[in-house]
Specification:
By secondary structure, the chain is mostly beta strands. The chain has no helices and 30 strands. It folds into two domains: 222 residues, Immunoglobulin-like; 162 residues, Jelly Rolls. Helix content is 0%, strand content 39%. The structure holds calcium ion (2 copies).
Length: 418
């Protein structure tokens, strides 16, 4: 087989103690606990549509290895054992079948990326053995050498990596240590770090914030132009402190559009010209007697009233909490991205809210993956909807508190070149 076309190899079957397998769990920062990122739809190969108890392992070049599992209907059915590995390439959406391991690994199996780029595939129900897979990238040419890198990284900083092959490095990747059990790794995370070549090797940018890289241990890899990974350097990502800032308060001034004009979605854009809109302080609305800016009550009631406000942020946002006062439905957008909605079925101007609430007040911790906030000028836009044509009241006010990442100072640099 020609170089670069290897299907990988499986190595020794080992007797192991499974109590020792799996990397340490990584402490999650409070900002990211219990939050989910948007689902990523992957095209599945025909073999894997009904696969269960398989392991997926992120590899340092950004591909995904699938090992083990069964394709038949039983819970842990050896008759449907899938022994061959498969590789998924997110950039192309392609699946490739790779070499087969010897032993069925289903329920209670585990797989873990090793610092040298190989993958440990182990266990299965009552199965006390492990095999090691050498992915095809290990047969594509010489490995780049990661000579030296800091032991600790802080988000928002740059750091130096020494390598004699700096000009041949295509990617620098940071992978969280795996924590795998029952065919599921609970701590997989891969970040591709931007880099540039300098006279000492590579200047690499650490992840922007702990939202992207929660504090804990990671493996730092260099990947060559040929796709071959270095042996990893273990690094510790530190936590950058945040300071809390009240960005928008109840009673603040807003621009508002209550003229019953359908603006489509143009009013969400940062560059939308709201200079003709009126201005006033919260609370907005009518019908309750608690309004600072009284909006006109009409029959039929106007379905949608719009609000916009610009604000500045001095650093990356690590957490954000909205406090809403609304009646009857509301949707809120940060820089054009919807961050929450209540009682909104369809956003279209003429559509009324799907339910009614009386001066509802609610705090909402925003999901920041992806993070809609930017350093500098931001635009918050909201729409408040009446529940129906005869509804006699409307309310809107909003507060925004954010955690802003403090400027990080690198904990350590590289020692002087010897
Ligand atoms: Ca109402
Ligand atoms: Ca009110």
């Amino acid at each position: 087989m020609a170089e670069g076309q290897s299907k990988g190899t499986w190595r020794a079957v080992l007797g192991v103690c499974f109590g020792l397998l799996g990397g340490p769990a990584v402490a999650q920062s409070p900002e990211v606990e219990g939050k989910w990122s948007s689902p990523l739809a992957w095209p599945l190969s025909a073999q894997h549509v009904h696969l269960r108890h398989h392991n997926t392992t992120l590899l340092p070049d950004g591909t995904v290895l699938v090992t083990g599992g069964t394709r038949t209907g039983g819970f842990d059915d050896r008759a449907g054992a899938v022994l061959h590995a498969e590789l998924f390439e997110p950039e192309t959406g392609q699946w490739t079948s790779l070499a087969s391991e010897r032993i069925y690994r289903g329920y209670h199996s585990t797989a873990l990326l090793l610092p040298d780029g190989r993958v440990l595939s182990a266990g299965g129900n009552g199965e006390s053995s492990a095999e090691i897979f050498e992915p095809p990238y290990l047969f594509k040419g010489p490995r780049p050498t990661l000579t030296e890198a800091p032991d600790a990284l802080l988000p928002g900083t740059a750091f130096q990596v020494r390598t004699p092959e700096a000009a041949q490095i295509k990617k620098v990747t940071l992978l969280a240590l795996g924590s795998s059990t029952h065919a599921f790794d609970q701590n997989q995370r891969l970040l591709t770090l931007s880099h540039s070549v300098n006279e000492e090797g590579l200047r690499v940018s650490a992840p922007e914030s702990n939202l992207l890289a929660p504090p804990g241990p990671y493996m730092l890899f260099l990947v060559s132009e040929a796709g071959v990974p270095s042996v990893a350097k273990r690094v510790q990502v530190g936590k950058v402190a945040s300071r809390f800032s009240s960005v928008i308060s109840f009673s603040d001034e807003w621009k508002y559009g209550d003229s019953n004009v359908d603006r489509g979605t143009s009013w969400l854009a940062a560059g939308y010209d709201d200079s003709a809109w009126k201005s006033g302080p919260g609370q907005f609305g009518h019908g309750d007697g608690d309004e600072a800016t009284v909006l006109a009550a009409t029959r039929p009631a106007r379905p949608s009233t719009y609000f916009r406000k610009k604000f500045q942020l001095s650093g990356p946002v690590s957490s954000a909490t909205l406090e809403l006062l609304f009646e009857d439905g509301i949707a809120v957008f940060v820089n054009g991205t919807q961050v929450c909605s209540r009682n909104i079925g369809r956003l279209a101007h003429a559509k009324y809210a799907t339910g009614s609430l009386e001066n509802a007040r609610e705090k909402v911790d925003l999901v920041l993956q992806p993070n809609p906030f930017v350093v500098g000028e931001n635009t918050l836009a909201g729409v408040v909807k009446q529940v129906g044509a005869t509804s006699p009241d409307l309310s809107f006010d909003l507060a925004l508190d954010v955690g802003i990442q403090r400027e990080a100072r690198p904990p350590t640099g590289l020692p002087p070149r010897r």
